[in-house]
Write a structure and sequence with these properties.
This protein is an alpha+beta fold and 191 residues long. The chain has two domains: 74 residues, 2-Layer Sandwich (Pantoate--beta-alanine Ligase, Chain: A,domain 2), CATH 3.30.1300; 104 residues, no CATH class. It contains two helices and eleven strands; from the N terminus they run αββββαβββββββ. The radius of gyration is 42 Å and the shape is rod-shaped.
Amino acid sequence: MKKGIAIVIVMASFIFGFYIGRNSSTQYRTEFKYVKGKVVRDTIKIKSPIYSYSPQKIVYLNRSGKSDTSLTSDPKDTLESLKMVLNDWNTKRVYSNTLFDDTVKGKIEVRSSVQYNKLVGMEYEYYPITKVESFERKRVVIPYVGADYSTLNILSVGGGFFYHNMGVELMYNKNYANGKNGLSFGIKYKF
């Protein structure tokens, strides 16, 4: 009779441990990292302008290189003014602007070139940043089974479960030296 009760208790602990382990609550840990991506570079083709405007009031340049908007008639030094205009016409100007620099979205830099009173080139560089989510799932309740054999001729079979790092164990013991049977209860701790 006692043997039957011990077997029922051991089987019930196996079933209980299996059920708890399968339906145990899980602990989640989510971690976010921002990873720099590959730089995207491209050149934008410049087409003809969609809108052009010519002012009615002409602005001349003085010898000092400063514009004088009050002059509407012919300037006093047309040759010098023509040289300044041609020099300004042929000068290529490159402008660089950062549209945005964000730790989450990345960075965009735009470089535009102006020559011959026209936009002649436009380039951009995009330094993307990608949000990477790492996810770890850890079971809180972990069942286990085990079997032991001692040099004192004792065979033990049983199981238990761990809750986080603490464990509970129930073992059925069979002593072959004197023929006695029994149950052992244990507490375990994971390091």
